[in-house]
Amino acid sequence: MELVLTGNMLVVSFLIGTCAVLLLMASLNDIALRLLPNWTTLGVATIGITLRLMEGNALTGLAAASALFAVSWLCWLRGWMGGGDVKLLAACALLVPPAHVLSLLVLTALGGGVLALAYLLLAGMLMHLPSGLRPATQPRTRIFITRLWRLECRRILRHGPLPYGCAISGATLILLLGPTGPLGN
Questions:
Q1: CB under 8 Å to 170, separation ≥6 — which residues?
Q2: Percentage of the chain with pLDDT > 70?
């Protein structure tokens, strides 16, 4: 019996580790391109369904994720969310236990608020820099991080969209890796 539990925890640990990598890749892609790749969302959803089947609450998990997808889809129709964010949020709702979907929404909203505040502060700081010192006006380089920072500064100054996939990913990882997550018990 103990060997089965140990083997089960190894599988869960592997799945959550894989999901953490997928969420990190989605976040980095969202920052760089403001796109969330479908393959990362599909991977997260597949791992979520697998975890729900292992815990025996697949129907409840699918119902919670479907309801969240429907509400998020309505937000997308109104222009309040991006399509990739809607898909990632629903996939992450499959990933966390169904009882924690509301916590996922609250943590995502808090993370999005922190992200918006950071962008507002950066916009204020960048606006007060002399135009020749703004990163968006600096000479072009081949270094990826520098190019990404210049692009992000340009987006900030133009009040472009936020990489909200980062808030969704962060909230999901907090729930998965925190004391109430599958590995915290």
A1: 27, 107, 111
A2: 87
CA distances, 22 to each of 19, 49, 75, 132 (Å): 5, 15, 24, 38
Contacts of 143 (CB under 8 A, 6+ apart): none
Q: Kindly state the tokens that stand for 60.
A: 């409840």
Convert the pLDDT of each residue in 45-57 to its tens digit.
Answer: 999 999 999 999 9
The per-residue pLDDT for 149 is 77
> Residue 163 is encoded by which pair of tokens?
């990489």
The answer to whether 36 and 88 are in contact (CB under 8 A) is: yes
Residue 101 pLDDT: 95
85 backbone φψ class: left, alpha, beta (φ>0; ψ -120 to 50): alpha
Cβ-in-10-Å burial (0-12, 13-18, 19+) of 126 comes to middle
- Can you give the pTM of this predicted structure? 0.85
What is the identity of the amino acid at 88? L
